[in-house]
Design brief:
Elements: E1 5-6, E2 13-14, H1 16-21, H2 30-51, H3 69-81, E3 89-93, H4 97-101, H5 105-111, E4 122-123, H6 129-136, H7 143-149, H8 152-160, E5 162-164, E6 172-174, H9 187-190, E7 193-202, E8 205-215, H10 223-241, H11 245-279
Antiparallel strand pairs: 1-2, 3-4, 5-6, 7-8
């Protein structure tokens, strides 16, 4: 038996295992340690949340109607002949669009076209790689990913909320996407706009934040016409990003009806079985006697 030390009573040596078990924890009781951990977690989460707090501008409401074929065709014209000049739309092939737009293959090729690509190709950008390297440095994002990542209200607000900002390289900024790199390609249609600024927070720091826009110059379209065009673009992008949405909407009522019919038949079968078990004079174990 190993002896560590001898106390006042020299006849009672203290063993090593006893000395270790009688030593108090520097953290005190387990409850105090749990309380300390909880307070640290709350403080850390609060500090992290405060450090990224930003003033969020209101989004413009929009209702997506995938049954409006005229709106989808109009949106397809703008996306495939304006947006695809820089962006790709690889979530769809040209051959998948006619059915979505309510057109035949020949009508699609005649009215909208494939921008020189094959009919079964995916929709890629028309910008040559050398131009991308010289001006954009990185490829502009695929519009399928953008439409899946953001809500229709965000997309609609983004398209209609560019404003003049001389501090930016392209001379414009955006209400819902601060320091956006995209130029205002819709300025000839919508006209130029100026921001409505308020004092707010951007990533936890006080700053002037744009919460809306006001017209500065006129474009070739009226505000109502441009809003309708932006809605058509958003509807087309939403339809491409959710290619089975129309089919789900068409099959949904039939599937729900099928479940209702099966539920009724299952309930009637349940009542039939248990009526024989509970009230019949002949139990199953008596059959054949």
């Amino acid at each position: 038996m190993a002896v560590l030390s001898i106390g006042k009573d020299c006849t009672k040596p203290i063993r090593r295992d006893q000395a270790m078990t009688t030593k108090k924890s520097p953290f005190g009781r387990p409850g105090a340690l749990a309380a300390l951990a909880a307070s640290l977690a709350v403080f850390t989460c609060g500090a992290a949340r405060a450090s990224v707090a930003s003033t969020q501008p209101p989004l413009k409401p929009i209702t997506v109607n995938l049954q409006d074929k005229a709106a989808l065709r109009n949106g397809a014209l703008y996306v495939l002949h304006m947006c695809v000049a820089c962006h790709s739309l690889q979530g769809a092939r040209y051959s998948s669009l006619p059915r979505m737009l309510g057109l035949s293959e020949s009508a699609f090729k005649q009215v909208i076209g494939t921008n020189g690509h094959h009919y079964h190709d995916t929709i890629t950008t028309s910008m040559p790689p050398a131009i991308i390297d010289a001006f954009a440095k990185i490829p502009p994002p695929d519009l399928t990913d953008i439409a899946r990542r953001h809500s229709p209200a965000w997309l609609f607000t983004y398209l209609t909320s560019f404003y003049v900002d001389p501090s930016r390289p392209n001379g414009v900024n955006n209400v819902v996407f601060n320091n956006v790199a995209m130029p205002d390609v819709f300025a000839p249609l919508q006209g130029l706009q100026k921001p409505r600024m308020v004092e707010g927070l951007r990533y936890g720091s006080p700053a002037k934040v744009a919460i809306g826009v006001e017209p500065l110059t006129k474009g070739s379209m009226t505000p109502a016409q441009f809003d309708r065009t932006a809605r058509d673009i958003v509807e087309f992008l939403y339809a491409v990003a959710h290619p089975h949405q129309q089919e789900r909407a068409r099959l949904g009522p039939w599937i729900i009806g099928l479940f209702v019919v099966l539920s009724i038949l299952t309930y009637l079968l349940y009542k039939l079985y248990w009526r024989r078990v509970d009230t019949s004079e002949e139990r199953w174990w008596r059959v054949g006697r």
